[in-house]
Amino acid sequence: MTHFVFIVADDLGYADLGCFGARPDAAGPVSPVLDALAARGLRYVNGYANSPVCSPTRFALMTGRYQYWVRGASEEPMLGTARGNPDIGLHPHLPTLPGLLAQQGYHTALIGKWHLGFRPHFGPDRSGYRHHFGPMSGGVSYYGHNARGSESDLELDGQPYDEPGYLTDLLSRRAAQYVRDRAASGQKFFLSLHYTAPHWPWETRAQGRIDPEIVKNLFHLDGGNVQTYRTMIREMDEGIGWVVDALRETGQLDDTLIIFTSDNGGERFSDNWPLVGGKMDLTEGGIRVPYIAHWPQGIAQSGSICEQHCMTMDWTATVLDIAGAQPPADHALDGVSLLPTLREPDHCFARAMFWRMKHRQQRAFRQGDWKYLKVEEDEYLFNLSQDARERANQARRDPQRLAQMRQTWETWNAQIPAVPAEARVHQPYTLQDMPAR
C-alpha cells in the first residue's frame, strides 16, 4: 500500500533550495529538510512546470493533460474577476487525479491553495478531494488570509473559515495532523500540500501582519527583500519537516511517495541560476523547477540524480500508475509515467514538451538537447546541454532545425483549442530578462 504526499511550492526558483544550488547564509542552510529528502531520494534536474504561471500548471496537475484543453487555463493566471463565471475553472465532470484515486479507495485531501475556479461552480470537493483547508484564490496575505479587502479567503470543507496564525504554519500543522489521522484509520491516502509560500506578500512568521493598507494591494512592489524571501522558504521547509516527522512517527514514511516541486519558476527575489528569466517567461527560468522524489520502498538508488525530461503532468501519470488507477478511455493522458525512472534513475526516454503563453505571444518546444523559443516576433534556437542560460541563439546557424522545430510546434498547437479572445493575461510586475536579439 503506497501513500502519496504531493507538495507544491508557489513561485519557487530553480536554485532556491540547497540541494539545487542555494548557498547558506548567516542563518544557515535554507532548506535542510528538503535537502535531506533529496539526499535519501531522487532529484530530477530537467523537471519543468506545465506553465510559467500558477493556475495553468494546476490544471495540468489535476487532469494529467496539457492545461490548454480547459478554458480556465487560458487565464494567465486566473484572477478574482473569474468569480461567478461558469466557464473559468476546473469543471466537475472532468476526471482528476484525486477523483481517480478516490475510486481506488484512497482518502484524498487538499491542504493549501486551490486556484482553479470559484464557487458555486467549482471547488476542491467537486473535483475529487474529500477534505480541503486553504485559500481558494491565488496570492493571499499570510496573516490576514485575504486576497482582496478584509475577509479571509480560506475555506474548510466547502465553507468559509478562518483561524488566526501564519498561513504556512497553519497548512503544515494540518497536513501533519492529517497524516496522523490517516494512520489511525488505516486507509491509504493522497495528500496535496500546496503552499502559498514563497509567493508574495513578503511576510514571515516573526513579522506578524504587515501594514493593512499594503495588504489591500498584494501586488505592491515596495516590500520584501532576499532575506525575507529566504526566511519564508525556511519556514515552509520547517513545516514540511513536521509532515515528514508525522509520517516517520506513524510508520508510514517508507511506504509514502513524497513529491516536491513548484508551480512555476521564481519571481522577484528568487535564485534561478544558471537559468534566465522567471515567472511569466517561457525561458528556462520561468518553467524549469526543482523536482524531488522520496520513496524508500520504491526508489532504487537513493541520493541519485535523474536527467529525464519531464513536466508537472507526468507526476499525475506516475501517481496513477503506481496506484493502479486508469483514466477513462475518452480522457487520454498527455503526461507520461516516471515510474521507470524511480526504479532506475539512469533510465531516460525521449520526451517532447510543448508550451504556449498568450503573454508576449510566447511559444516553446523542447526535444532532447534542443529548445525552440518564440517571443512576440523573435525566434530562438538553443542547445540547452551546452547553453542552459539561453544566450547563444543558434537560429541563423541551424535554420533547418529551426524550421523543423517550428513546424512540430505548430502541428502540436493545431491539435489543441485556440486561446479565447477574451482570455485575460496578468501583466508581469517583475523585470523580464528575455534573450537578447
Task: Write up what this structure looks like.
There is one protein chain. By secondary structure, the chain is α/β, with parallel strands linked by helices. It has ten helices and 16 strands. It folds into two domains: 3-343, Alkaline Phosphatase, subunit A, CATH 3.40.720; 353-413, 2-Layer Sandwich (Arylsulfatase, C-terminal domain). Strands 7-6-5-4-8-1-9-10-2-11 form a ten-stranded mixed β-sheet, sandwiched between helices. Strands 13-14-15-16 form a four-stranded antiparallel β-sheet, with helices on one face. A two-stranded parallel ribbon has the order 3-12. Helix 2 (54-63) packs parallel to helix 8 and helix 4 runs parallel beside helix 6. The protein is globular.
CATH topology of the largest domain: Alkaline Phosphatase, subunit A
**Strand content range:** 15-25%
What is the overall silhouette? globular
Radius of gyration: 20 Å
Q: Could you state the order of secondary-structure elements as H and E?
A: EHEEHHEEEEHEHHEHEEEHHEEEEH
Write down the domain tally: 2
Question: Could you report the average pLDDT, rounded to the nearest whole number?
Answer: 93
What class do helices, strands and sheet pairing give?
alpha/beta
Can you name the CATH architecture of the largest domain? 3-Layer(aba) Sandwich
Task: Show unreliable segments.
Answer: 429-437
